[in-house]
Design goal:
mainly beta; Neuraminidase; 4-stranded antiparallel β-sheet; globular; signal
Length: 369
């Protein structure tokens, strides 16, 4: 009953906010006079299944495409400048070249971290590789972590670097649900390593990259201060947004959403399961997420911006002051551009969204009028 009521409330909140025009804004009733009008436009097109978009310290957009291509994009003109195509990437179903993040001290340490699928002795596998950007291309590859199970679905694979410069990696269950609860298997996990690939001494399990487990398909990851948020695909119910905590279990496949149905409460009590801060039933297929806190669009301040695939939209998840609850959900650009895979926010408060339609995919730029 608890889960049913939670899902009903989430759907009601979602439907209430979804019936807005594409450029409608709502800040949850706080100072409506401060709202600004938004404009959206296609910045670049002709892409093929882009996965990652981020705003780099070099003031350029960086994107990956599943086929193996990494590019830089001018955020003003939309000019796409190829950086490299990784020859050993194998794109199979939803797999291929996926997550990417740049070193936070990129000006002095121009390192680029990427995660991708490849064939290792005939076995589809994921690895994370660190490259150096020499001003035109990527050189000096160093494999940081390897042998992560991969599949044509449920790869997860977002990367984020924490304020204390640890690399976090999401991995789905690679289409085998039981892997998620097996702490000796790297599928269905969020992993944490040092930027040189070594294992931090303060990880939950000595000598292991595991940070959290019980994940099905986490496709979004963002730090807000030292708080780590992840978006995750559910099965037939309960897509989730979670706050990721050290050593904790997120339930899959034994728990979907809240610990409230059948054997779930007992499993949660025994296994230290963390419940999501928000969940959707019916599922919406949440993907990449970024944090917005710029004065440029004041009604979006202190919000997670979530790219959504199945429901083809951008969601604003307005957080409470503590950042541990979603207070308001607002919907933008529903069905205007098709499936949305990832979102990035610039220091100036502009928002960039990539689509995932597989045919002439685009970068959409959103800003105040």
């Amino acid at each position: 009953m608890k889960k049913w009521l939670f899902c009903l409330a989430a759907v009601s909140l979602f439907l209430f906010s979804a019936c807005k025009k594409d450029n409608a804004t709502d800040n949850g009733g706080d100072e409506p006079a401060a709202d600004v009008k938004l404009t959206d436009a296609v910045l670049a097109q002709g892409l093929s299944f882009p996965w990652e978009i981020l705003y780099g310290p070099d003031n350029m957009l960086w994107i990956t495409e599943r086929s193996g291509k990494i590019s830089r994009v001018n955020p003003s003109t939309g000019a796409v400048m190829p950086v490299i195509t990784l020859s050993d990437v194998v794109s199979q179903g939803e797999g291929g070249l996926l997550g990417m993040v740049l070193h936070p001290d990129f000006a002095t340490t121009p390192e680029v971290f990427v995660a991708y699928n490849y064939n290792k002795s005939g076995v589809y596998t994921k690895k994370v590789v660190k490259f150096t950007y020499n001003g035109s291309t990527l050189v000096n590859p160093v494999v940081l972590i390897d042998n992560i199970p991969a599949a044509s679905t449920h790869n997860g694979t977002r990367l984020a670097i924490s304020p204390d410069k640890k690399l976090f990696i999401t991995s789905g269950d690679a289409a085998t649900a039981s892997r998620a609860q097996d702490q000796n298997n790297t599928a269905g996990k969020i992993q944490r390593i040092n930027l040189d690939g070594t294992i931090p001494a303060d990880n939950p399990n000595q000598g292991s990259s595991l940070w959290s487990y019980g994940h099905r398909n986490p496709q979004g990851l963002v730090f807000v201060g030292d708080k780590l948020y992840s978006s995750e695909h559910g099965n037939t119910t309960d897509d989730e947004v979670n706050i990721i905590l050290k050593g904790r279990n997120y339930g899959w496949p034994n728990v979907e959403g809240l610990c409230s149905t059948g054997s779930e409460p007992g499993f949660c009590n025994i296994n230290n399961v963390v419940e999501p801060i928000f969940a959707w039933t019916p599922t919406i297929a949440p993907s990449g997420v970024d944090y917005y806190n710029s004065d440029a669009i004041p009604q979006w301040k202190n919000s997670l911006l979530l790219a959504v695939l199945k429901d083809s939209e951008l969601l604003q998840l307005k957080l409470n002051a503590a950042g541990d609850k979603v207070e308001v959900v607002n919907t933008f650009y529903k069905s205007a551009y098709g499936r949305m895979r990832d979102v990035a926010v610039s220091p100036a408060g502009e928002v960039f969204i990539i689509t995932s339609n597989g045919n002439n995919d685009k970068i959409i730029k959103v800003a105040k009028e």
